[in-house]
Sequence to fold (402 residues):
Amino acid sequence: MHDVLVVGGGIAGLSLAISLRKAFGSDFKVALADPALGSRLPSLRTSALVSSSKNLLAAIGIWSEIVQKTQPIWRMQLSDSRIRDAVRPFILDFDEPAEAGASFASMVRDSDLVACLEHEAARIGLDLRSTAISKITYGSSYSMVDLKDGKSIRARMVIGADGLNSKVRRISGIEAVSYNYGRSAIVATFNHEEEHHGVATQHFLPPGPFAMLPLIGRKSSIVWTELHRDAQVYSALPEEDLTAEVVRRFGASLGKLSLEEGPTIFPLRLHLARRFVGRRMALVGDAAHMIHPLAGQGVNLAFRDIAALVESIAAALREGADIGSDACLADYERARYFDTTSMVAATHGLHGLFSNDSTPLRVLRDFGMNIVQRLPQLKRRLIKEAAGINHQAPSLLRGELP
Fold:
């Protein structure tokens, strides 16, 4: 009998499994199943870890291992312009992090973080299964999960951390709301002559945002949004032509650019499960929600899920209650659903406001960005909200085990 079976071995699933073991000790039995364990292909995708996410990784002993592979973001600059504009000034400039000496976020390659998490999961002796699930039978006191390798696992709670097309969610009969933005993100890594000094830039262009995100050394990751058909055309360009298009959008502030890796393309979707819990089951990360990447909050939302779920389980254990009970699961859903739907609505609204070439909307959004730029207290509040800094946040987001 396991206390928890986590399905999915990406950033969310591994972080959750490790958090459970670190919080509740070796007597709390945790298994994790994913056929990609130990064999995941490298990815060009990167994540911007905000303060609360770094706190969680520090609490479970990961941050000290991964920090050398992260690049702090010390400044964020936003512009709203057309590619053909001769002058494209930054309208909004975030140059004061929420905490003295802290960065706005730290950029990390997803592949590096997953590798670090896999190593730690093996080191602490988690029950890791390199296989997929085939069936879940829900019982009154536990669930029986059949695996594709012919074995089965009994668990008091099953957690779906298995991504957008979550099998756990489908088996549980939970529907999801989806919206196709009709756009894809082109992701690539570029070398450049000049230092980036930890500055992240984002140009809001009519098809969608173009972001240049600093990595360690004289490297940056681009996340470039275009309509599906245009993304396919641009990603197929010869290296010289692709680089010229990047310079056309970003400018020459970093000197000569050269392509290091990529490009690859990722379709952009909005996705929200109608419920985050079911019978002895909870969803975290992309299995529960997927948002537009313009705010860089996708992985940070997953860490908020993890912290809230661990907190709910800790409360149940203190009371001697069943961790898979409806009451425990309801606590988790209450803690996460409003925050998540608010973020979904905000990012969807920002996409609609900025991803167009409407002159009236451009005047409206530029006016709003100028107001934020001129009100330091409002900027600090927005930064703190994005960083997840809140004295009422779950223990893990404050860097403590529950």
Q: What stands out?
A: The chain has a mean pLDDT of 92. The longest strand covers residues 176-192.
